[in-house]
Structures
1.
Amino acid sequence: MVNRIFSGAAYYYSRYRPPYPQALLQDVVRQTVGTSGRHMVDWGCGTGEAALPLSSFFAEVVAVDIDAEMIALAREKAAAQHVVNVRWVVGPAESLDLSDGSTDLIVAGSSFHWMDRELLARRAHRALTERGAIGIIGGGSNVWDVTCGWHEVAVTTLKRWLGEHRRAGSGTYTVAKKHEDYLEPAGFQLECRDYRVEHVWTADSIVGFLYSTSFASPAVLGERREGFEADLRAGLARLSSADSFPEVLDFYLMIGRR
């Protein structure tokens, strides 16, 4: 199931996911390598949301994702931005070989919860240099927390078309433990920072965003996609005749040091 979680979502992921805040990305560098580093690894890189903006601070970046469509789009974006120091790898993060003491920074953006966190936390601790760090990035629009009006419309519509339980590809979404439950036993000292960003959605960008997720991707919706989208757009139109849906996005950065 794992490699089908985001099947068909790459285009929407690249276009409609709100970017990580610039302040967050700056803190990743400032709080880890300072101004520049030698080697960075990005686990679950998606279409390059973290790897590309951080690549200019490192001599070499290795970015891995299990979804080949995500990697293909990341390569296209890198070429368009003239980024040449990123090596893109298709595969699970768990398959990437890391030498002991070889890496200045490991990042995982909105992806660590999909992985074998116990294994990777231990592996990160060994792979990092003496002053190296792991940076877990997450947050954004947490639809299932229903913190704004359009979330309520979306969740109601999702449940009507896909059932009561949140989907994750062909299965359901369950995460029993927090990241710190794996990072602290592996030997990391953790520091967390929060970032709030004002964002205004339209119906088009909400639809595109939902198609980028594990719970409403084109593959998950299948033949229900057309009906779901029409139902969702009707609900959004009732909520705002101006096609404007403001939201405060909550992002976080968890930095783990050895």
Note: The CA atoms of residues 139 and 164 lie 23 Å apart.
2.
Amino acid sequence: MRVTVWRSSTELVAPVRAADQRHLRRDHLYMGLEHDGAVGYGEVAPQPVNLNGDPSVDSVISALRVEVLPRLERMVTDTGELPRWFAVHRVAGPRPASVVAWSLVEMAVLDHSLRTSGSGLESLWTARQAPATIATVSLLDDESWAVATDATRVRAKLRPGSLDEDRVARLRSLNRPVIIDYNCSGGSLEVVSREIERLAATVAVAAVEQPFEPGNLIAHAQLAARDLAPVSLDEGVRSLLDLRLIERYRAASVVCVKPPRVGGLAAARSIIDAARRAGIRPYVGGFFESPLARATLRHLAGAFVDEPSDVADVSTRTAAALEATGDGIGYRPVRAAHDEVVGEFGS
């Protein structure tokens, strides 16, 4: 077996300012996993800095080098074969960087399995529908809003005190339901309540997302009890235990499930299934990935989710170096000369 992980970078066509950072560039970590004559590929696109419980790209690279790649090498050496893709998330450590790193392994192992059998993503789960999509805009700057015509819902980034009449009018002019996304910056229950009341008077508010810290279920439950708009949790959804606590506290009626954050596709499906059983509406989110990882997000959403999801391809100024293939997840990333190799083993 031979494994190579490299780091590439793209710049977004439409930068998005969130409460605590501006999304302008995104680093992509690609893995090529060669075993028994076939190669599988995976991708994660971590944030540039540690924020709201999500690890930075450097933290994920450190986890790969120190923990994940050495353990993967031992696992394959001991057994002579790759782990089953749907079991990979079970070996992830508790640290967020470990979870994201193992989700990269899971995708590469899945792609390897599909390529070995000569099949594609469509053989994994039966897609019920083409997933409806979400467009993301920001009320925190004056960037142009690139909203695709086929996006059926808009997610608007803001923080308390950022509303003014011009921006509210601009949001209203989109004529689509809106998720108001605070990215943990809400602070005060009273301030958030007033802002949601103001917006809901003229805008179709589909949900208010993650106004408070990820672990603050009580404040989210108090907001939900006011029945101003559905409450959605995003950064607060990292495991099945989180989902069960959300259900117990009645802290949200919507959840955003991001596979890299929870350990990969298998763990994400378990959380989505549990949410649906609990009467909580799940949707699939992402981290500005390339079309390689986005293909898996779309397949997951199309098979198991009814809500519009953040699964459309991301517009970048320079296209990611990918080659379309007829099997596997559907793409092969091509390592450029300037890309940094951040981990490898085997020969």
Note: The CA atoms of residues 144 and 181 lie 18 Å apart.
